[in-house]
Amino acid sequence: MALPGPSIMFLLLPFDSLIVNLLGISLTVLFTLLLVFIIVPAIFGVSFGIRKLYMKTLLKIFAWATLRMERGAKEKNHQLYKPYTNGIIAKDPTSLEEEIKEIRRSGSSKALDNTPEFELSDIFYFCRKGMETIMDDEVTKRFSAEELESWNLLSRTNYNFQYISLRLTILWGLGVLIRYCFLLPLRIALAFTGISLLVVGTTVVGYLPNGRFKEFLSKHVHLMCYRICVRALTAIITYHDRKNRPRNGGICVANHTSPIDVIILASDGYYAMVGQVHGGLMGVIQRAMVKACPHVWFERSEVKDRHLVAKRLTEHVQDKSKLPILIFPEGTCINNTSVMMFKKGSFEIGATVYPVAIKYDPQFGDAFWNSSKYGMVTYLLRMMTSWAIVCSVWYLPPMTRETDEDAVQFANRVKSAIARQGGLVDLLWDGGLKREKVKDAFKEEQQKLYSKMIVGNHEDRSRS
Amino acid sequence: MGAAQSTSEEVRELVGKTGFSSDQIEQLHRRFKQLSGDQPTIRKEHFNNVPDLELNPIRSKIVRAFFDNRNLRKGPSGLADEINFEDFLTIMAYFQPIDVTMDEEQVQLCRKEKLRFLFHMYDSDSDGRITLEEYRNVVEELLSGNPHIEKESARSIADGAMMEAASVCVGQMEPDQVYEGITFDDFLKIWQGIDIETKMHIRFLNMETMALCH
Q1: What is the pTM of this model?
Q2: At residue B207, does pLDDT exceed 50?
Q3: Is residue B208 scored above 60 in pLDDT?
Q4: Considering its fold, how many domains does chain A have in total?
Q5: What's the whole-number average pLDDT of chain B?
Q6: Is residue B3 assigned to a domain?
Q7: Which of the residue ranges A29-43, A277-291, B61-75 would you say has the lowest mean pLDDT?
Q8: Using an 8 Å Cβ cutoff, are A349 and A314 in contact?
Q9: Is the residue at A4 inside a domain?
Q10: Of A79, A135, A444, the CB nearest to B145
């Protein structure tokens, strides 16, 4: 009997090289597909419609999954959807004055005494109001991610997930496999390609002499790389009213939900970015970009100086050959159900403002960046392991500041237009409340009103 | 997956102790977690995260009421450093509406509890009396937002109101008699026969699940 060892090895050898060959071929095929279906269309700005098809398929699967969950829940008599609440308490809409008068009327036995003075019962109103706000307040609600009413096979959006059926769990498991093992590496590869092309491309273009050719190339390098990044996130974007796109010498203003907003807008238009100089990878990208065309980057120390910022922006805007500036005036990421107060800085410059409304569809992946909860890298990973990012972008007609309105009123006007178009709630509160406390000016209002009531009348009384 | 859910055993216990329904308890638990930042207890600093509360002139008194041992039924005086969810519910329970199905005795008890909560808000040194100083303190706080009001006006308002309260409680006073302060019984006497407690409640919404419709 011959030794089985070596003969087995001889038998396996062709399989070995077969496997290597297969691997090589499949990788080549994969890369060619990648190139043909993703990168080349990105360069030319065309789309094969693959992502839309993907979206339709996903929707069908979600509908099926939700149906199964409902059926399962009915069988087990579980409560499936979270109770629909707009708040847990019914707040009284009466004003401060009415309520205090009412309290006093019911409390005071001295009906003859018409002039209200301070009474023990006045504290009731403020006490109750205080308790109400502790239980439920408008502003904090805006900052937690929107809650879904149907399940999109991402466990992170479902708080009531219970084991419903084997089929559903298998589907979910398959989803995890696809997302983490297939989509994620693909997306990371694309992102890597996009960013390196951006850095290399803009640096190369930077060496060219200034002129129309340089501008042309720069525009296309930027657009191409942003488009690749869009595909890296599998973002399915619908643009509306593209005729209103921002032009040179204008300021483009949009509501802010996540850092991805930049990529979404910049893949459809050529903008000058505004921002703080960062270190690390972002810094490399920023330095490369500015070689190809003038973006406005501020040092950390300059950011605090509002006049300097305003001056540089004004200079940029007045030069008609320079690109429209892209600014997010809310100052922080909001959870895409409402639009918060716009900071007035960008509205003081006096250029034409092109408002843009961005609304994400949370069904495929929640794009909101809760910066106090997740860091940037965690956030990007979450984005890349979602199914897709679906959003709509509306370009609104340009607005300019009227002669009789000041920067704040103009900012509010733009904000309302954006909120209306995107179907978002228009809130007066300052987005900065997420981190800072209420400015003292607002605090004074309630107290002033109450004290006016008491002291004003007290003075009347002492005079009479 | 999802947030940790308190066991139904604990919820039932809380329902019995505090009188909230299990849905309301679940909602309040979420609110508690939001305020505490997912920690098991709340401290005074956590109330800084409620922006609307900043507008309230007696903000510090309200926050203090949450940690007051008398309200938490943990002692005759002093402040707790932190409160857990059960304590949170205990304080919230002071603001439950009075059940119309309760009998007269229970109604009186509820009313007394609510008024006692308010009394504690005034009586900051826990000595059982609202002295002139404490009264002045409350008036000043309520009027503190307005920079145009001098301390003197606030004081005179407080003094005037205190005098009236004294006349209700003690009747005619001798010229050199010092009124020591409003005791809780006097406090109750002021509000006797007057339906104040309906102003001291917050209307909790009934949670109803959405109909499953296709």
Answers
A1: 0.52
A2: no
A3: no
A4: 1
A5: 76
A6: yes
A7: A29-43
A8: yes
A9: no
A10: A444
Could B199 and A139 be called an inter-chain contact, meaning their C-beta atoms sit closer than 8 Å? no
**Residue A283 structural domain:** 166-436
Taking CA atoms, A179 is separated from A167, A174, A236, A244, in Å, by 18, 8, 17, 36
Domain assignment present for B13: yes
Q: Write down the ipTM of this complex.
A: 0.78
Q: Are strands A338-341 and A425-430 parallel, antiparallel or unpaired?
A: parallel
Ranges of H-type helices in chain B: 8-18, 22-36, 59-67, 85-93, 104-122, 132-142, 151-170, 184-190
Which chain B residue has the Cα nearest residue A138? Answer: B52
Phi, psi at A128, each rounded to 5° = -65, -45
Binding-face residues of B in 37-96 toward A, CB within 8 A: 47-59, 61-62, 92, 95
Alpha helix locations (H) across A352-439? 376-384, 407-422
Q: Closest Cα to residue A432, out of A299, A256, A296?
A: A256
Amino acid A336: pLDDT: 61
B93 in a structural domain: yes
Mean pLDDT is lowest, of A76-85, A354-363, B126-135, for A76-85
Residue B5 lies in a domain: yes
Domain annotation covers residue A141:
no
Please tell me if residue A442 touches chain B, with a CB cutoff of 8 Å: yes
Number of domains in chain B: 1
Question: Any CB–CB contact under 8 A between B31 and chain A?
Answer: yes
Looking up residue B19, the CATH number of its domain turns out to be: 1.10.238.10
Whether the predicted pLDDT of B126 surpasses 50: yes
Instruction: Provide the domain limits for residue B37.
Output: 1-100+196-214
**A131 closest CB neighbour out of B1, B2, B62:** B62
Confidence of residue A83 (pLDDT cuts 50, 70, 90): very low
